[in-house]
């Protein structure tokens, strides 16, 4: 519960007031504003006049801004330090805040709320505080988003001060009521701002659009109520859960409350009546709210007194007492102003009112009326609450409930003597605690999953929340469609990634699964297909489906280029973004300083089954078309010539690049040809050398074989001649043996046959040795043959590769020449990527490896750090 904070500010005497004598009747003493009662003051004092000479009003703040020399003087900074900082701290905590200035015409409302360039008022200072938040106001830094809107209510009609219609008659907006979010203005423009300068720009624009008129007190009196609304959303971590808190700050500069003067024209009378109507309604709302608040607080105090005396009464709710005196109806909807400020007045907002008054005696009546109004407002009690995320709030409430139940459990254990009753209760409570804990666990899991999913998406899309500037940058490396929504109430940003391959678009009741589901007028079940092949994106409408690209209806395959406006069906608008293409175009713009539109806004028509056909003449984007309407025929002609010259320049640059590329290729081909020749010579020489070596080895082996054979024959002959001699020797020794000793005989008999044996053995051994060396020699020859064959294979492979390279080089060189010729024919809309596509198609006949090579060599045209999409 919080009372509406009320401040009073007294402005300096105006020139007119000074001229009239400049009698000051207001005094400020700390938190009290005193007004001298001129009606009593002017008469002689007497016992019959009971009226107070001085009427005093107490407020939360009283500012004396009459004389800058006065030590009590309250400057704009002083007012901001009291009121502005409390608006900021409330917003940072997640409260809705409403600060409104109320007072007579020319009393200083606009000065206090907006200020002058030399003396900045509350609104710009509050905005500056939001941006330069050095976390004086909270312990935790947070990422935030700031959106503003600015409206005026004039003659009970709402106008957007930041979106003016071109028609003479200003259009008005409707006020509607959302069941949860409360009243809102349908179609009011919301502006995302990232720095203080932008706010100042918007404030200046809005103030300039405000309706003012000269009144008898003020030359530039604001005739309308102006509401500047700031939607401040913070992303925070609460209980380790990522969460958002949003607060709405309404800064209201009300119109001056002046009587409808019959001397004014009819319009002014109606205007005055309407201003009065809303201010009267505001007065009624404020006093009814004050009454209700007082009634509520008195009920509470009665309840607290009775509950002290009797415990049973404490069960009665305040409603039971107030049931006898029902809360008064609050006529919020009697005026647009009170309807829109419903939440700020007596709702869940923290409300601050600044009543501005003149110190002059001439404004006595208005000053008294303003101070009474302000006094009334002081009694309003609001119930401000933090606008926290619904899930986080639920988790917090459940945790509180668990704590409460656990305390109850403990107290039951301590208090109850009856075990059965206690067990029952304990059981129920334990179950409740368990249920709640499970709920928390589930909610935390759901919530965390949601955030994990978001994180995954954010990582994929490289979403970055810039903490310093409160801006959100969504960046994606893949080609994508970005939905462009006309509905002002639609706040989300939708990106559809176009991945490598096919993306199907159509209705949800289609027989095939759609990658992008669209509903609405003229959307077919199967509407269109978007192909992304190596970064080349083409849109193919299904027969009969309505698709346009950059305003032209598409019936066949159409290549999409960076920045193209794609409309599917009647109302689904998308902007096509190709980050890689955009990077190339940015680089080209940097290098050649040519207009990006030359290549970024073109339509490229492709006959996918046949040959590439050049693009139709340059197609203006809607923006350019619009600008063309406004410039004369001559200027149009001039700009067309300029454009044509720029196109020629781009072409010349492109042709030069192709020529350079061609020269490079030619040189490469020559080198490759020399290499092929060299390889061929090497292979031939190697072949001859190997054949000679083989022949020589073969001859050597044959010689060895022959020698071996000869040796064997000789050995056999020698052995044969040895056999008769051996037999003769054996007979002679046999006759001697009878005569000699037996022992001696046996020894000789052992020696004589062993000699023959030895010879035989030696012969066999030698033969084996010879055979072994022969086999070894044969093996050597075989090994050499294999080695030679392998070498020949390797060299042939090299030769083949070299020949292939040569072919590729020749083919790409042929393409370059071809491109050069084509580029001379094509005068418009030639983008590098279209050549790339052609290159890819032509290369199909040469196989994938050659394609890669040519893509690579072609990509050399791009600056080295530009990403190449494949
Ligand atoms: N505190 C102040 N210090 C100096 N000059 C002030 C102060 N308050 C108001 N003024 C001057 O008084 C004049 C009227 O002020 P302002 O336009 O703010 O009145 P207003 O209440 O917004 O009037 P209206 O309701 O008619 O728009 C301006 O010239 C303004 O500069």
Automatic annotation (TrEMBL):
Residues 3-380 form the Kinesin motor domain. Belongs to the TRAFAC class myosin-kinesin ATPase superfamily. Kinesin family. GO terms for cellular component: cytoplasm; microtubule. It comes from Platysternon megacephalum (big-headed turtle). It is found in: Cytoplasm, Cytoskeleton. This is Kinesin-like protein. Transmembrane segments: none annotated. ATP binds at residues 103-110. It comes from the Eukaryota. InterPro entries: FHA_dom, Kinesin_motor_CS, Kinesin_motor_dom, Kinesin_motor_dom_sf, P-loop_NTPase, SMAD_FHA_dom_sf. GO terms for biological process: microtubule-based movement. SMART domains: KISc. Keywords: ATP-binding, Coiled coil, Cytoplasm, Cytoskeleton, Microtubule, Motor protein, Nucleotide-binding, Phosphoprotein. One of its GO terms (molecular function) is microtubule motor activity. Pfam families: FHA, Kinesin.
């Amino acid at each position: 519960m919080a009372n509406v904070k009320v401040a009073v500010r007294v402005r300096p005497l105006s020139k007119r007031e000074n001229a009239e004598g400049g009698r000051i009747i207001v005094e400020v003493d700390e938190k009290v504003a005193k007004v001298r009662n001129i009606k009593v003051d002017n008469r002689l004092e007497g016992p019959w006049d009971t009226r107070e000479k001085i009427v005093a009003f107490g407020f939360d703040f009283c500012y004396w801004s009459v004389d800058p020399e006065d030590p009590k003087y309250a400057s704009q900074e002083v007012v901001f330090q009291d009121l502005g900082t409390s608006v900021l701290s409330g917003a940072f905590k997640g409260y809705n805040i409403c600060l409104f200035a109320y007072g007579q015409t020319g009393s200083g409302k606009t000065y206090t709320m907006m200020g002058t360039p030399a003396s900045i008022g509350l609104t710009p200072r509050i905005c500056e505080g939001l941006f330069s938040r050095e976390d004086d106001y909270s312990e935790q830094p947070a990422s935030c988003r700031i959106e503003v809107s600015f409206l005026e209510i004039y003659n009970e009609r709402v106008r957007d001060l930041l979106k003016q219609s071109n028609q003479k008659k200003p259009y008005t907006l409707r006020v509607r009521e959302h069941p949860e979010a409360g009243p809102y203005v349908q179609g009011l423009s919301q502006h995302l701002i990232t720095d203080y300068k932008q706010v100042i720009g918007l404030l200046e624009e809005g103030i300039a659009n405000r309706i003012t008129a000269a009144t008898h007190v003020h030359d530039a009196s604001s005739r309308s109520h102006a509401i500047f609304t700031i939607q401040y959303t913070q992303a925070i971590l609460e209980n380790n859960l990522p969460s958002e808190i949003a607060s709405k700050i309404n800064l209201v500069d009300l119109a001056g409350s002046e009587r409808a003067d019959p001397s004014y024209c009819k319009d002014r009378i109606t205007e005055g009546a309407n201003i009065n109507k809303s201010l009267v309604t505001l007065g009624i709302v404020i006093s009814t709210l004050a009454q209700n608040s007082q009634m509520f607080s008195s009920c509470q105090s009665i309840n607290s007194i009775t509950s002290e005396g009797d415990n049973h009464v404490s069960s009665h709710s305040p409603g039971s007492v107030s049931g006898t005196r029902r809360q008064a109806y609050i006529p919020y909807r009697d005026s647009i102003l009170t309807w829109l400020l419903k939440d700020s007045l007596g709702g869940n907002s923290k409300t601050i009112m600044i009543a501005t008054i003149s110190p002059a005696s001439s404004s006595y009546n208005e000053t008294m009326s303003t101070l009474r109004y302000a006094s009334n407002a002081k009694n309003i009690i609001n119930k401000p609450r933090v606008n926290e995320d619904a899930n986080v709030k639920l988790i917090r409430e459940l945790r509180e409930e668990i704590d409460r139940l656990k305390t109850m459990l403990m107290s039951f254990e301590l208090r109850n003597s009856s075990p059965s009753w206690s067990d029952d209760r304990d059981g129920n409570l334990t179950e409740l605690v368990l249920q709640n804990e499970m709920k928390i666990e589930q909610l935390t899991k759901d919530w965390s999953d949601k955030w994990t999913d978001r994180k995954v998406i954010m990582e994929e899309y490289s979403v970055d929340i810039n903490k310093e500037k409160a801006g959100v940058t969504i960046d994606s490396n893949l080609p994508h469609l970005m939905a462009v929504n006309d509905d002002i109430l639609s706040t989300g940003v939708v990106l559809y990634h176009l991945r490598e391959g096919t993306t199907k678009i159509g209705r949800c009741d289609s027989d095939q699964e759609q990658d992008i589901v669209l509903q609405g007028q003229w959307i077919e079940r199967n509407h269109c297909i978007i192909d992304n092949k190596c970064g080349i994106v083409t849109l193919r409408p299904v027969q009969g489906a309505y698709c346009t690209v950059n305003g032209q209806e598409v019936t066949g395959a159409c290549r999409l280029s960076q920045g193209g406006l794609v409309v599917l069906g009647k109302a689904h608008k998308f902007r096509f973004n190709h980050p890689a293409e955009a990077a190339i175009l940015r680089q080209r713009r940097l290098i050649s300083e040519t207009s990006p539109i030359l290549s970024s806004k073109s339509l490229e028509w492709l006959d996918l089954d046949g040959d590439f056909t050049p693009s139709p003449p340059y197609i203006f984007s809607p923006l350019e078309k619009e600008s063309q309407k406004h410039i004369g025929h001559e200027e149009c002609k001039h700009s067309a010539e300029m454009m044509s010259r720029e196109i020629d320049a781009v072409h010349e640059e492109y042709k030069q690049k192709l020529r350079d590329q061609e020269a490079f290729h030619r040189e490469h081909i020559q080198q490759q040809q020399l290499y092929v020749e060299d390889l061929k010579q090497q292979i031939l020489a190697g072949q001859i050398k190997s054949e000679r070596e083989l022949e020589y080895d073969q001859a050597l082996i044959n010689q060895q074989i022959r020698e071996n054979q000869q040796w064997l024959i000789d050995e056999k002959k020698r052995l044969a001649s040895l056999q008769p001699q051996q037999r003769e020797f054996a007979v002679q020794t046999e006759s001697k043996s009878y005569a000699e000793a037996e022992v001696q005989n046996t020894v000789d008999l052992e020696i004589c046959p062993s000699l023959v044996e030895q010879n035989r053995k030696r012969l066999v051994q030698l033969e084996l040795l010879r055979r072994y060396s022969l086999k070894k020699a044969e093996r050597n020859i075989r090994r050499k043959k294999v080695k030679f064959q392998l070498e020949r294979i390797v060299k042939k492979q090299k030769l083949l590769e070299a020949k292939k390279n040569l072919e590729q080089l020749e083919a790409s060189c042929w393409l370059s020449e071809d491109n050069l010729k084509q580029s001379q024919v094509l005068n418009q809309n030639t983008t590098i990527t279209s050549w790339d596509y052609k290159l890819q198609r032509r290369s199909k006949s040469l196989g994938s490896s050659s394609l890669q090579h040519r893509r690579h060599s072609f990509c050399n045209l791009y600056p080295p750090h530009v990403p190449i999409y494949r």
